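Quick illustration, no need to memorize.
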Amino acid sequence: MTKYTENIQIRNYHTAPDNKAHIPPLFQFMYEIAGDHGIEQELTIQDMQKDGLSWMLSRMNVEFTRIPSFSEKIKLTTWPTGARGLYSCRDFIMTDNDDNELLRATSAWVTIDFERRRVVRLPQKVLDIHPDPDAAERMIIDNFRGKIQEPENPVIVDNFAATYSTLDANNHVTAPVYVRWLLDALPAEFFNNKNIRKFEIIHKAEILPGSLSKVEYSISGNEIIHAIRPSSGGVVNCLAKSVWE
């Protein structure tokens, strides 16, 4: 399967008060182009659901060089980088109009039995899009480095609601909303004169319609450990780590 590129322009509704793009839309661009790349191969979520399956993002690792600004035109390229056990891996590169790198990312996706909500082996039509192991282009970032520990003595921000507008075709909170909630929990003044350099997220459990969640985070130097879990307590829905300067 060849590389696939889309041209994107940063709009007002993508931007923060400093006229730079918010972080969640950049994640949204990557999720959408992955789906667009699957249209010809009939591998969109909607196509998979016809076979009783669906896609879920397992983890994503992003390294940022520069955040694009309002009205800037950018190019986003994606390609599959190989099947690894239950994971279908995919990389991304975002560049500006002069081909300067803005970010690079790697991701790992799983297929689920849509009715039972359980991970299943990758179907053959997914395996077929990946290059042979000997010919596979290496993942940009090692996306299997291990665990992210839960935040210690965290700050807690509660009452993030899984309302209708947060849901996607899987009828659960969509992946970009996780990123938005994790960052929205931070105080607004935190973002003054801060530049994100890395963001890694591991999805553990889906958030279903009507749920209430709380975000936990702890800051140590230039690193933040984040988590989302039900407001009532229990296992985490996701863990994340971000690095800033």
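The first strand starts at residue 4 and ends at 9.
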